[in-house]
Structures are given as C-alpha cells and as structure tokens.
Amino acid sequence: MTEANQSDSNEDSLTPLDQVSNLLRRYRLVDGLIHLQNDSSDEALADSAVQKQNLAELQHYLDQLHPADIAVILEALPLDDRLLIWSMVRTENDGEVLLETSDAVRETLITDMHSHELVAATEFLNADEIADLAPDLPQEVIDDVFRSLPVEEREQLRAAMSYTEGSVGALMDFDVITIREDVRLEVVLRYLRRFEELPDHTDQLFVVDREEQLQGVLLISQLLVSDPEMLVAEIMTKEMIKLCPDDVAQQAASAFERYDLVSASVVDATGKLLGRVTVDTVIDFIRAKAENEALNLAGLSEEEDLFASVFQSVRNRWVWLAINLVTAFVASRVIGLFEDSIEKLVALAALMPIIAGIGGNSGNQTITMIVRAMALDQIQRRSAWKLLAKEVGVSVINGILWGTVVGIFTFAMYHDPELGLVMMLAMLLNLVLAALLGVLIPLTLRKFGRDPALGSSVMITAVTDSGGFFIFLSLATFFLL
Amino acid sequence: MTEANQSDSNEDSLTPLDQVSNLLRRYRLVDGLIHLQNDSSDEALADSAVQKQNLAELQHYLDQLHPADIAVILEALPLDDRLLIWSMVRTENDGEVLLETSDAVRETLITDMHSHELVAATEFLNADEIADLAPDLPQEVIDDVFRSLPVEEREQLRAAMSYTEGSVGALMDFDVITIREDVRLEVVLRYLRRFEELPDHTDQLFVVDREEQLQGVLLISQLLVSDPEMLVAEIMTKEMIKLCPDDVAQQAASAFERYDLVSASVVDATGKLLGRVTVDTVIDFIRAKAENEALNLAGLSEEEDLFASVFQSVRNRWVWLAINLVTAFVASRVIGLFEDSIEKLVALAALMPIIAGIGGNSGNQTITMIVRAMALDQIQRRSAWKLLAKEVGVSVINGILWGTVVGIFTFAMYHDPELGLVMMLAMLLNLVLAALLGVLIPLTLRKFGRDPALGSSVMITAVTDSGGFFIFLSLATFFLL
User: Fold this and answer.
1) pLDDT tens sequence across B16-33
2) Whole-angstrom Cα distance, residue A233 to residue A211?
3) Which of A298, B202, B408, B410, CA to CA, is 20 to 30 A from B304?
C-alpha cells in the first residue's frame, strides 16, 4: 500500500485533484493549438513534442497516487477528462479504482473498457472484491474470470456472489489465517514468518479444529506480549463476536461500533469458519448508508454521477417528484373545497401556508427523533406510549407558543381578533396532528416490515399540508363566515 | 475487554435491552405490591425477599455486559428506570459507559452522581478519555482529577483539553508505543513481551529519534513476517499518514476511509510525535457527524434524549421553528400582495401550493447533490459552470414535463386553458429558479466560509415558496385578469 504523505501535500497546499486538473488544462490548451495549426508546420511539431512531455508528466503523477485518490479525481472530472485519465491508470490499479468509485461513475468507466481489459483488471483482485464488481460487469467477462480462477477462489467467488446486498456475507472476505489450538506460540510466530505479508487488518488469528469449526481467536496483541512457550489454547479468547453471513449488514456495523473491532469472524449455522469482516469494509458500509438516507430524504433514488447527462438525472429524480406532485394535488383539492370561504375572506389564502409549513417542520422534528431511536433499537412497546405523550406535550406547548405569535401577527396585519384566534387554534391543532403522526407513521411502517426511514418525511409533510389546510379553512368557515 | 457472544444472544433472541426490561418490570411489579401492603405483614416480608433476589439477578446480568451495551440500555430507558440501572453499574465501568452515551443522556447520569463518584469513575480512564468527558463535569471534579493524576498524565490531560472540538487533536489518544530505528526486530519482540497488554488498535509501532521526531512506522504485520535479525530501519515504512492536531477532524476521517487505516500518527509542526488517532474514534466521529447532519436537516439543534422533559425538547427545537416561521411570514406577505387577484380568481389559492411544493422538492434534490459533492471536494471552479448548466437543463426538462402534467390537471379541474398555460409556465420558471439557487446557495455559503450543509435546505425551501407564489400569482395577474 503506497500512502500519500499527507503533511507534504499540505505544504504545497494542492490536492491531487488540483494537480491533475492543472496538468489536464495544460494538455487541453496545447491540444487546441495543434488542431488550429497546419499539421506539418514547425509550430505543430514543437507543440506535439510539448504535448508528449505533458502526457508523460501526467502519467508520472498518476502512477504515484493511491487508487482511492485516483477514484476521487475521476468522480470530480467531466466525462471527457475522466476517460482520458482513466486510460492512463495502470492495469494493476484498475480493479482497486473501480472498487473505490461510486456505482454511477463506475458504470461510465466500465462502459469505456474492452472485455479483455476488464478481465485483466480483476486479476489483481480477491474473490470477494470481484464479487463486489460483478453486478456491473458484462456476463461474458464474469464467465471469463470464472474460467481463469483456481478452483478454491472460484468456489469463494461463487459463495461471495450468492449473498444478497445488505447482508453480512456481502461484506465478508476470505483472508483469514487459521491455526490449531494445540501448538505453541513459538510455532505460530514461525508459521507467520513464512508469509510474505499478512492480509490487511489482521488483528487476530482464527483457531479452528480439523472440521474448520471456530474454537476461538488468538489476538495478535496477546501473541506479542505472551511467553512463546505457551500453548494457543492457553491464551486464546473464546468470547468473541461471531457473525452469520445471512445477518443484515447493519448488525455487523453495530457490533463494530459498540465493541471497537478491527475484524470479526463469520461462521455458518454449524459454527464452521467462513471468513471475516474487517473495519474498512464496515466504514464504507456506514458511509454509504448515511449517504443513501440523505439522498432518499431529498428525493433522489440513488447516488448520481455529478456529471451524469441531463437525461440520466431526470430519470434518477422523477419518482419522488411524481410522489410529491400527487400529494400536492391532494392538498390543492382540500383547498378547493373551501373556495367559497376564500372568496369571502381572501386573507385565508395568504395565511394558510403558515399553518401547513410550521406543521411540516415540527412533524419532521418528531419523525427524525423516532426514526433515529428505532435505528438504535431504543423503542420498546412500553416506552412508545411515553414517547407519544411527550411529543404531544411538546406540540401543545409549541402550539400555544407559536400559535400566539402567529395570532398576534395576524391581528397586526388584518386587525381582526377572531381571525387571529382561528390562526392560533389551527396552529395548535396542526402541531398536535404532526406530533401524533410523527410517532405513529414510523411505528406503523415498522409494524408492516418497512424501513421507517424511507418516505416517512414525505408522508408527514403530505399530512401536515393537507391536514393544515383543512383544519385552518374549516375552522375559519365555521367561526368567521 | 469482555465481548458479548453475539451468536448466543441470537439464539435466545432477546437483546440485552429486552432482558434488562423484563427484569426491571418484575422488580417494579413487586415493588408496587410492597407499597400496597402493611409493612410488617408476612407477605411483605416474603415479597421483599423476592425483591432482593430480583435485584441480585439484575445486578448479575448487568455485570456481564459490555459498557457499550449498558450505554444503549440507559439511553432506551425512561429516567426513573435509567437511574436505577445506573446506580447498579460497577464503578470501574462508570467512565466507559459515560463515554459511550450521547451528550444529552450523559448529562442526566452525571447530574445524578456525587463528586466523589465522578472522580472515582475517571480513575479507570486515560487522559484523552477524561478530556472527552471534561465539558460535562463540574469544575471541582476536574480540579480533583487533576490533583490525583501523575505528572505525565496531567500534562496529557492539559494538552487534550486544549484542542477544540472538531479538530484532530480532539480525536487523539496518547497510547503510542515508540521504538528506535537502530535495534533488531528481535529486541522489539522482547520489548513488547514486557508489556502486560498492548494498547487497543496497535497495528504499528512508531519509530522516533532521541528528540521524539517521528522517523517512520513499523507495521506489526511487517514485524511478524520479517526475519528477527533485521534492523527496524530496514523494514520500517517512511511513507505514512501524519496528521496535525489542529487539522479539522474530517480530514483525519477522510484519510482513514481512503487508505483503510487502523491508526495514524499525530505530529506537531516540527515533526515531533504527539499521539495517534485510531479507527474506533474515527467511526464514532463519522457516525456523530452523519447524525448531526440528519438532525440539523430536520430542524433539531442537537441530539435529544429520547426521554427528555417536554420543556427540554421545546428548547432544543425552537430555533428552527422560529426560522421557519419567519420564512412562512414572508411567503404569506408575498401572497398578500396579490389578494386582489385571488379575490377575482379564487382557483389561484388552491393551485399555488403545487408550484411552491414541487419547486422545493426539486431544489432540495439539487442542493443535496451539490453539498455532497462539496463535502467530497469534487467541485472546482471550472466544473461549477458545467454543473450549473446541467442542473438548469434538468430543471427545464422537468419543468416542461411536470408543467404539462399540472397544466392538464388544471384544465381538467377548471376548464380554463389559459389558467393551465400559466400553471405550466410558473412550474417551469420556479424549477429553473430552484436549480439556479440549488447550485448557488451552497457555493455562496462556502465562499463566505460557512458550512454549506447547515441551513441550505431551509433557505432553498424559503426561496421556492416565496418565489413560487410570486411567479405564479404575478403571471396570473398579468395574463388572466
């Protein structure tokens, strides 16, 4: 692993992206000049020599970079620049870079590659890494890769590809070092010296019996501080985290967070060691999850390539806009019911968005609290009632508080005390509605086995909009007209 | 570190929280009975014997749990149950549990403790951990702790407390093992055996000279596979991540994500080794950051104790509601400008929320894309124009598409083709406005050194609301009346 020396790159204060961009700009400028000139002129010849120099410099710079840095650069470049840089990445880095890029950007890179290039790229990857790429690879490439693998790895790839996304199996790798419990630590140390290098994130060795049943783990830190004459069985840990490949990945992530793990074993139902999960994969998972939640909340179906075509972006965004349009139509029809009232008292039209807006904001506060607590498994049947009571209590206080503010505002604007009172009452009722549904919507979604985070913000806003309009306009119709 | 055996707890399928809740319920039930009875009756005596048994069982179960699990349980319990359980946690676990709980819950626990209990709890913590708790501790406790520490740790605590929140220094610990470069690996191995245990997450030893200048790192995995006769200088790595204590913490997090680190060195400006950052701290940081963003987006100022009092919750939520109220008042006044038009054509009142709503949704899609790309440092001056053009392109297509849909809907409702055309045009214009500001708001916030994530969603919604009402109502006034 070549690691960038961070303090050095701070000193000249240019990120790798800046560096590559500058080199690219120089290249593109000269390229433009060459096309303007007569091909055989002396200037053109001189320029193309300069051009070769530019490309060599760019190549030299790229060769030094970590694949993860190259991935960041590719994601930040428009398509033409991206593909130029991609063509210059060394084949042995291709696979790593593909693993590091987002799905959308990876697609643009793979589309640009020949089958034989893709097969070559996978040669530098492990079975579990190939499995991560597999969904984006053409079938013929996967077939080729399968044929080229040794038997053991072929089995591993088959296993890795069989786990569903979002399961522990999908996070698992096969880079485990196993030992027996009846050997001395000295033997273990000698055994390790026969490796050229240890797998990344090896903080423990897995102790198995002849049937590959996991018996315990030998922590590297224990191995280092213990007397080499001792037996593995004497110092190995039997209390350890065992994950199952079919568990949801979030369960593994929670275990890593809570118990500060670097790696954890994965075993099948009989206790046979299948592989391990490492902390770097878990970090990627946590990040991807947080990002997806943020994207969904904003109404984006999936991560979008920053430089995706306009058409692709429209496709990625249409679902939530369509849902939003339906809820907006419903709210519009609710208002339509009261057109007579509005005609008589046109101030209602100007005031009603206030009630709907604050209700939506308050409902989103409640729902965010509840969804978060549910994600942390903190809500039990008994405490649900307490929470509902608390949220309704908060909404009553807020309703009286902000209801008074808007009531006074309304009175100041329209000099109509009754209109002010209706505003206050409508605010109070809509906030209580928001609190009730802010608790009930996520609980109901979970009861029906749905992800409470997905779409609950849209639902609460829909309810507080339509509900707010209805509450306010019907109160006004009843008391004022 | 005692780790829960996860597969066992799966088998009986009860989480630690469920177990504790069940034991607690039993305890509370009998407690209720005792209070109902005459104190000296035989039943009361029998019950209090049962009660002792219940408490002993609860105590026994709690003693086995990992501090992180206890923290989760405390967060999920209402205040009275929480404090009962907290009083039963063993003193040597108190500090760890306090570190694991959220700020809000920690406050409830610390309020319930005497000074001497707090001082006792810190005795089991390192200097960097005490520094993490310090902001929540009374000054007298901090003074006591200072006096009780040995000189070296006192200096470390002083240093750790001097770093601002959100800096690398705040994530740093002092558990580094240092070695010299001119010794053989065999000597290093013997040196390590003198430790009783290695600090958690020791994946590398730090090679320093006599002035504590960091020369390189010796990876444990390299140490294990190399010939013990070799010198440290021969196999140590000189290319490594060096963090500075005053860097923003996000920079450390990015380095850990990109380069899959377990630990990284922290050095001062002269290159002197100060400490290290480990992956478990980084995971906590990443999670807390993602959570804060989600909370802010929903209008919560900070993490809130699930069972906070109603009054505390109102205080935590009022800022964003107040901001929202101001933007709603502005939108209301915009509508107020057009009360004459609405009086003449009351359908406008029912239709205007559609324009505002879809604009807000579309603007949030754009702003989420841009803020995310900015967080990943993917937006350069040159590409900003490309992005603006793309977003406007998307909004034009969406505007024509959804504009046509709402136009047809409007025509179907009100049988007025001109009103349909105005809806279509207003939708198109408001989506273009949303796209322009969805790109410009975060870029502008960054230009003025503000966090582009904070409040940009509120701002875009405010603009698309007021802007949408203005565009629609002025078009209608101009073309229809």
Assistant:
1) 888 898 888 888 888 777
2) 17
3) A298
